[in-house]
Structures are given as C-alpha cells and as structure tokens.
Amino acid sequence: MSTSVERVVNTTLYRLGEPACRRELVARVRGELRETGCSVLPDFISPDVRDTLRRECAAVAPQAHYDVETVNVYNLDVGAELPEGHPGRVTFERGNAFVARDRIPVDAVIQRLYSSRLFQGFVADCFGLPQVFELADPLSALCLNVVRPGMEHPWHFDINEFTISMLTQEPETGGVFEYCPGIRSAGDENFAEVARVLAGNGGPLVRRLELRPGDLQLFQGRYSLHRVSEVEGTASRHSAIFAYSERPGVIGSVARTRQLFGRVLPAHLEAENVRVDQLLD
User: Fold this and answer.
1) CATH of domain 3-270
2) Which pLDDT score, from 0 to 100, does residue 276 have?
3) Is the pTM of this model over 0.85?
4) What are phi and psi of 20, to 5 degrees?
C-alpha cells in the first residue's frame, strides 16, 4: 500500500494491499451489493486521520455553490409536458450545495484517496469491473455535498453507473440516507414504483442508513432512487462524493454542471458528454 493511502485508510480493518485480505473484503462487498444494493465499510478512514478529514472538508464547505430550486427526480425542466402520473411531474425544493473539485486542496485526504490507484483498483474489484477511471470533469469528479440544517437532498438518481461516498461530518439529527436499490435498470425506468416512492407509499422498497464520519459507502446510484432526509439541529451534513466511470473521458453536461456548481469551464463547453445509457437524468 502506498505511504499516502496507508496514512489515510484504517489498515487495522482494511488491508487493501494484502491480496488475501483484499479478496475477502471484495467478496463481502459484492455480496452486500447483490443482497441489499449497498455496502458500507465502517471506520474506513484511520482514526488518526478522521479529525483532519472533518476539518479539511469543513474548511471548504463555505465555498459550496448554494441555490434553492425546484427540481424533480430526473432533473427535467419542471415545466416540461409529461403524461398524467409520470413521476417527473412531482417536484421538490432542493437546498443542498456542492463544493467542486477545483476548490478542494490537492493534498486533502479525500483528494489523496480519490486519486489512489490502489483505491481505484479496490473500487473496480468491488463492482466487478476491470478498471475504473476518474471522471475527466474538473468539477464533479470529486465534490463535497453540503446539506444545511432545515434542508434535504431530495429524491434523485445519479448520473454515474455507481457511486462511492463518505460522510465527513454528521448533523446533530436527521440527514438519514434513504434509498431504493435497483428500482430501475438501463432498459426500464419503472415509473410506477418510482411514483409510489415519491407519493410516500414506498414501504419495503425504501431502505434507511445512518452513516458515521469515515464510513465508506458503495452503491448503484444510477439505478437506485435515493435521498438525504431533512437535516436538523445546528450542524450541516458533509459528504464527499467520489465519481468514477467505466469509461475514460466522461464530462458532465453544461446544464447539469451549471445546476450543481453555478458555473461551467471550457472543458464542459468543448467536450461531448459520454453517455452510458438513454435513461433520463
């Protein structure tokens, strides 16, 4: 294991550089992904680094692009004409915010972990992929999600095929991660069940997780409807999002990037977004 990552990962629990230990851990993660659609590795970050993780992310949190707006789960224009009963007609107020990668110091814990070839190889193994690539997107490849008290991150799908995230600061209360594993697939939007969840009738479709700082979470956010419930108390909820793709060169669309970060860079204007399917975003 490289010195940089060895100082970040809790090697007492997660010895990624030892083949036998890694195979056992990967088997565990794959099993949980098959069974529940999500795998959480508690205390993935070394106890000695956890406070640094929190402080670094809290320091850049004020730089988050913050904008309250009305959205739907597919990020479609809320004025778009959709059939009666289409889940895209259900709207929410989104008041969460994102710190883009270019605002996060290059030597920060989450930057070091995200760029680690060892960590990337581990992620690829967990999802049964030959390799994963860092997003070419200079803003969304790695970002910090900030949910302030009184706000929530409403129901949505991710653009990426899979999602890796890590809580870096927990709120006093609320801010629970809720998700519906595999509610849609690349070939089926499954509008009926998505509409049930949005109407509050999801029942057993909805799973709930209470995460702790330093926990690593792996799940299929592209196909799993998910949200963060309203944050309560005085502390914001901070979560690092590590975005990888099965293909190189992926850059977010201009509209989506401006929505999340309030700006776009020349790379977004010049590049053609590499899509993995024809699902609504």
Assistant:
1) 2.60.120.620
2) 54
3) yes
4) -65, -45
